[in-house]
Amino acid sequence: MSKIVNKGTVYLIGAGPGDPGLMTLKGRDLIAQADCLVYDALASPAMLAWLKPGCVKIYVGKRAGDHALPQDEINALLVKCASQYDCTVRLKGGDPYVFGRGGEEAMALQAAGVRFEVVPGVSSAIAGPAYAGIPVTHRDCCTQFTVFTGHEGAHKAESTLDIPGIAAAKGTKVMLMGMSRLRETMNALVEAGQGADVPAAAVQWAATGRQKSVTATVGTLADAVADAGISSPAVVVIGEVVALAPMLDWRSKLPLYGKRVVVTRTREQASELSSKLEQLGADVIELPTIRIADPTDKRDFAESVVDAPHYDWLIFSSPNGVRRFFQAFFAVYEDIREIGGARIAAVGPGTAAELKKYGLMVDVMPQKAVAEELIAEFDRKGDEFGGVANVTMLWVHGEQARRVIYDELMKRQAIVDECVAYNTVPETEDTAGAQTRLREEGADIITFTSSSTVRQFMALNLPLPRGCRIASIGPVTTATLAEFGLKPDIEAEMHTIPSLVAAVQKLK
After folding, report:
1. Number of domains in the chain
2. Secondary structure (H, E, C), 42-91
3. What is the pLDDT of residues 22-64, one digit of tens each?
4. Catalytic positions
């Protein structure tokens, strides 16, 4: 073992086959701790939302014939990162040691004296077939399976694939990374004794919303794949278990299967909406158009938080305001009880749910997350708390918030101070290539969760795909869409993510 000479540790983490929900708990925890992330094209973009602020992201993605960085340069990069960062995460699709060249990276790190750990991932060799309704083993069909690669290193003078051995093997056979030579491999297997009439399948983009599969036989699979337009990345399955797919294909029965849905929320917030849509089978393109930044006047914000316990009411306009407020609050105070005896108002259920995370219940909350509805709720419940005249109120909001709450409460003789907790700014990074995907592949539905997401999406000058329908989270967002000559096809009944998801389902 080489002497450890670098300060940092490199973690080789398997990202699984595509569904971020298949990431291990240890893998997710390490991603959240990463100072530097080195990731490839098969890692779900949703995992980028788990990173802490300031984490350095380096894309080294590889596709057949298109390498962002050659393997030897990736090896050298990991060694260099270990000398610069305490925690470097190398995120690889599937499992690092299942045809993922993780062994080569580990050997390079060991030779350079770099501490490293391997966090296994769910291999597409198992998950790919499972997501297409194909169990790799079944007591009625087989009790073993073989995994092999259809793509070998270019440096090899001749193939080391044991085609006769694979053809003669009992049970299920799974081929990874072999789409470019699918026809040749299937023909070679048949020539070596593999039954041409044995069921076979190809599953592209397994365990993602882009999943597409086709079933045939060993002898006809290459033609079926060509007709279906299936290409890399794909898993090929050979065996009697493929015949179970029509019965066990649970994913194609999901309500949003085959629908491509764009999520325009901030990268940090997108995961909630994306995961709900993905659970329903949607192919989600996360295209964050905004990000939440510090307010312009950070000193004024800090002073407002310090003074918060002296107010009769605290009014929160959004979940972002709640999060930013309490991040600052607990930097000053140690106990939530130091918030004092203030009553609390929230604009809508989503904001109330965020407050509940801190153990705080609301006294006033409209069902619709609209400022006008909050004022109406104050008017309806005024007698319960003696009205708002001469009552001190701290309104926590973002810099672009409409002035309705302030103006209307002041008209009712309340004493209102403002606490500007955050600023909404355009998202300029497109590390996951979402904009390119939208331009090249289009979309069926695009979701907007705020006026800011509408304005910043329009500022990107991205074409709205032909036939793409629009889902709005509420009337204020709908009004902003109208400013750009757009009319949503559906508006959520309530200004919440679950309600927006329900609306999207009605567009299917």
Report:
1. 4
2. CCCHHHHHHCCCCCEEEECCEECCEECCCHHHHHHHHHHHHHHCCEEEEE
3. 999 999 999 999 999 999 876 677 788 789 989 999 989 765 4
4. 40, 62
